[in-house]
């Protein structure tokens, strides 16, 4: 078993810093969504989102490489096995390529699994508190704002095929994380034992009961997140936006706004 390096300090949940980040997140999300919906050139918006995706991908890879350096390596954090670690790469692909599978994963993971970081952040400071604070929140906020912009700004809608595909991908990544935990003794994805710090999982009982309840909630909440987009006449008849039928494109909301004006 590898030894974990304990952080020298942690961010206090719902302290001044946390509250400030939550307020900033709401403001950033509202401004980004408003900018996309008010824009008159949809292609220009998509190009800007692609650039944002490339920036997110580069920052993600650099941040991952930083934790891999011998001076900063520790087994509990350095391997990119958390769901949010892979989510950042997937979100970048969604912004760059508008791939259906990536948009679907970004939507379901970004608006649920990623939210735990906002409600009960597990942010420990190991070497560079300022940098670690900034990167933690920038990457989590990006993973939250991107699917909101793609779905409510550009009109991409998840389908039941997307729901099932993301469930399968989630199970696959959970298997990878559990295997990694078995080898390293770490707890990526909080799948192998209780997190050890206060979290939303505390409401679901002790491990492994919490994992079973989490599975039930994921099935139910993701279904609830899919159903509204598949029942409306206009949305259900919108053209499929990818070969596998994982998302539909409900027109261009920007174009519809211009037509009304």
Describe this structure in words.
By secondary structure, the protein is mostly helical. It has one domain (12-260). The chain is built from ten helices and four strands, in the order βαααααβαβαααβα. The chain has helices at residues 16-38, 42-68, 83-97, 100-110, 116-119, 129-153, 160-184, 209-231, 233-236, 253-260, and strands spanning 9-10, 124-125, 156-158, 247-249. The strands form two sheets. Strands 1-2 form a two-stranded antiparallel ribbon. It has a two-stranded antiparallel sheet with strand order 3-4.
Order of helices and strands: EHHHHHEHEHHHEH
Spatial order of the strands forming the largest sheet: 1-2
**Rg over C-alpha atoms, rounded to the nearest angstrom:** 19 Å
Beta-strand residue percentage: under 5%
Protein name: Conserved hypothetical integral membrane protein TIGR02206
Transmembrane segments: 18-36, 48-69, 133-154, 160-183, 204-225
InterPro entries: CHP02206_TP0381
Keywords: Membrane, Transmembrane, Transmembrane helix
Q: What distinguishing features does this structure have?
A:
single chain; 261 residues; mainly alpha; two-stranded antiparallel ribbon; disordered C terminus; membrane; transmembrane; transmembrane helix; Conserved hypothetical integral membrane protein TIGR02206
In short:
The protein is mainly alpha-helical and 261 residues long.
């Amino acid at each position: 078993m590898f030894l974990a390096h304990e952080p020298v300090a942690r961010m206090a949940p719902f302290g001044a810093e946390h509250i400030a980040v939550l307020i900033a997140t709401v403001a950033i999300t509202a401004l980004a969504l408003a900018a996309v919906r008010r824009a008159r050139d949809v292609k220009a918006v998509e190009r800007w989102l692609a650039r944002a995706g490339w920036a997110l991908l580069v920052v993600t890879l650099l941040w991952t490489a930083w934790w891999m350096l011998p001076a900063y390596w520790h087994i509990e954090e350095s391997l990119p096995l958390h769901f949010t670690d892979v989510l950042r790469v997937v979100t970048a692909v969604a912004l760059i390529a508008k791939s259906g599978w990536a948009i679907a994963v970004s939507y379901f993971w970004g608006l649920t699994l990623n939210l735990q970081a906002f409600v009960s952040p597990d942010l420990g400071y190991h070497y560079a508190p300022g940098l670690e604070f900034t990167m933690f929140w920038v990457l989590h906020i990006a993973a939250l704002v991107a699917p909101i912009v793609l779905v409510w700004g550009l009109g991409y809608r998840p389908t039941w095929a997307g729901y099932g595909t993301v469930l399968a991908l989630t199970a696959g990544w959970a298997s990878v994380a559990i295997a990694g935990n078995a080898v390293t003794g770490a707890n990526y994805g909080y799948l192998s034992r209780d997190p050890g710090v206060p979290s939303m999982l505390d409401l679901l009982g002790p491990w492994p009961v919490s994992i079973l309840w989490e599975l039930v909630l994921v099935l139910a909440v993701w279904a609830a997140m899919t159903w509204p987009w598949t029942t409306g006449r206009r949305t259900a008849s919108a053209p499929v936006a990818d070969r596998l039928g994982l998302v539909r494109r409900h027109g261009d909301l920007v174009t519809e706004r211009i037509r009304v004006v």
